[in-house]
Request: fold
Amino acid sequence: MRISVIGTGYVGTVSASCFAELGHNVICVDIDSTKIDQINAGIPPIYEEGLSELLNKHVGKGLSATSEYDFAVNNSDVSFICVGTPSDSDGNIDLSIVRAASASLGNALKTKKNYHVVVVKSTVIPETTEKVVLPIIEEHSGKRTGDFGIAMNPEFLREGKAVYDFMNPDKIVVGSLDKKSGDIVASLYSGLDCEVTRTNPRTAEMIKYVNNSFLATKISFSNEVGNICKKLGIDTYDVMSAVGKDFRIGPHFLNAGAGFGGSCFPKDVKALIGKANEIGYEPVLLKSVIDVNEKQPSMMVKLLKNKLGNLNKKKIAILGLAFKNDTDDIRESRSIPVIKELLDNGVRVCAYDPMANDNMKRVFKNIEYHNSAIDALRGADACLIMTEWDEFKTLGKEFAVMENRVVIDGRHMLVPHDDIEYIGLCW
Reply:
């Protein structure tokens, strides 16, 4: 089938490339000419494992990019809205880019005679597809639902493993107002071995938020338990290893540490809190999930102060800047509040990340960035491990270059060594 994908960010580029891999003809649409040129040259605008290979395989052979909505809509049967939905200062979802994309799609649909389905893949709060996207498309196209289709198809992609997750999904959710549009969207995934859950748009939107909010809740719960275990001299990993064997709980997302970050969990939990408040419900548990997560990075600095005392003019190495391994994404990274608090305490911060140094330079220009762990560690009074990069697991002799071999591990990464003072965050 012919598909157009609006937005060439994380979700859009991965979805477009994977749809092309499934045999569909795909046109990417973006207002950023740099991204268009990159995609048409086979260069992904974001880093994601396996994405470059897919782009190179399909660009010019069924996948292209343009800034022209009219061209994309008239040469496709289905349009996916994959634009960003950032949070405002209060944590509420900002739909301005979704609104703009909807208006542009509506204008392009005005003269199209054939049936066309608009699919919202961006993460949006319940009722957005029906009460925001649909009315805007109707207004700008001069058509009514039925003349075109409308559906909601949330993504469940892990950064760093997004291509794999798209091609090997554990669930595909399609929410539509009518059977015809839902059937068309579901058929796009016929090459994948996964059942398609069919529902209405607002339920599909809610499934996405509940999915991420539940995972975030497991993490904050594990961190709260970990903080209690730390005070009792109990290894929380021993506790959670046993707890995770209960089939009702499962072993995933029970790892205590410095907390969750990224473009999804913090934003989605806050957006669901905002929606709950809007309809007159006080989401106490969800608020606690955010509260625990925001306090967790400070626990790292507290442990550091307990060990070193006054931190002024101390040299502290930060290993890991990305919010998780296998990505260069620093959005809501737990390193950010840690670095800020260290700088407020007069610390000389030396940082290293295999991929995220350049991105973090946009946030902190006044810290030292290094090209290896050993360079960051050299002469340091202590080291904080913030991201689960595989290369950090094998660190050992590198700690010999530190002034004081104090290592505070925020991700349960290291095997303790006799020649370093190893301090776990929650264990």
Remarks:
- Residues 42 and 57 are 8 Å apart (CA to CA).
- Residues 201-232 form the longest helix (32 residues).
- The chain has two domains: 2-199, 235-427.
